[in-house]
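The data are set out underneath:

___
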Amino acid sequence: MRATEVHDTHALYLLEGARVMLPPRFYELRPHQVSAIEQIWDKFREGTEVVMVDAPTGAGKTVIGEFVRQLVAPLLASAYVCTTKGLQDQFIHEFPYGMLLKGRANYPTLDEPERFPKVSGADCSKIPTMGRHRLCDQCQAGVPFDQHQDDDQFTGGREQKLYHCQSCHPWQLCPYRVIKEIVAHSKLAVINTAYLLSEQNFAGRFGANTKVGQDGSIVSVVPHFDGMTIIDEADTLESVLMSTVSLALSHKQLRTLGLAPPAKKTVVDSWIRWSKDGWAVAEQQLQALNRELSRFEELDQNQIRERRDLTRLVSQMEMLHTDLSEQPDHWVYSGERGVEFKPIDASMHGPEWVWQHVQRGLLMSATLISPEQLAADLGLSKTWDVVRVDSHFPVERRRVVAWPRASMSYKTKETSVPEMVSAVGDVIGMTEPNLK
């Protein structure tokens, strides 16, 4: 399949009335890519909600996914999701019209990038004003401060409309906040898997829009990305999800909270009681911290981090208690390094944490060993199918040959690294490998 037009800025494909515009380097697709695109497109048109693509390394999965996205949902909001910043950068290099969003720590503050280069968006101090907190003219928004409720309103759970940030003035122009809003309104967001799961299920910026009826039942759920969610390295999705929903508290954190491990490590009822007590303790400490912080005009970064971590812990403890109460058999406990609760697999959390946020999903992997097992492990509650792409490299050119040259342990790195560099050079220089 060749583009009908090729320009300096794009290559245009016309296919059954659909227009696909790719960077000019993709002026021609390889036969296996064309076949995969046609199969995936057919499955989506038949009503399949999630398509798994099993394609080997080098098959060009990203261009397959981007071509399909433009065929299926060109005008809707879509996301390309992967596990590393390197893959995010690689995707943007190939498709520069995508909008890249990384974690807070990758963005400077507005006011202090030169004075404090180590201070980043991860140290954000934007909080609702409380008590004596100083409010500068640039940060004021909403109703006047003197018309606000009393100091206890913050711990009472009512919405606070005045904010102040010590590093970004005004806080609305925080570099991280600005790029996050741009990405939220883009047609193609490029986001890290763990970050997106957290944002969709904790922060809520990319969460699904849920409409609730008068009787409290869910009437409809519309994902933020109502076009397509393309998940690269889909074989890692279960482990990322399990890591996100797990709870781990070190011995130091337990001492800070004044918590002991569950009284009986192998008794489920003891786990449930512990999670309920821990949730209550965390909430009490958060309320006490808020009252304490209301006495300061300015907060230092340690105070800000403490409040942010404690707020997150309250949410995690609440979620753990709910899950342990409803499905205790799905959890395991480890007390080796403190307190750690992990789900047996991700199937219990998949529907809520992943699939309610997916309108159409394209799961791509070079190691899709068992689609059936992956679907079961992820609690895939949508209709799904598989498209397999065979390797286009001749079998004789993809042999795996063991050629030991050096031990790569830390102790022997002085001698082993030069040996490995030399070995790699030998392999690169071979036209007909003869590794013995």
The longest helix spans residues 268-293. The radius of gyration is 26 Å.
